[in-house]
Amino acid sequence: MPSREELVPVGIYWDPQLRDNTRAAFVADRTHDRHAPVTFIDWLDRVLTEYARLDPHSRAALGVDPPPARGRGQGQGVSRMSLVRTSTLELVDAAIAEDSSQLGKTRSRSAFIQEAVTVGVEAARQRCSGGVLPPPPSRLPANPHPRRPLRRRATQPTSSAS
Question: How would you class 45 by CB atoms within 10 Å of its CB: exposed for 0-12, middle for 13-18, buried for 19 or more?
Answer without folding.
Answer: buried
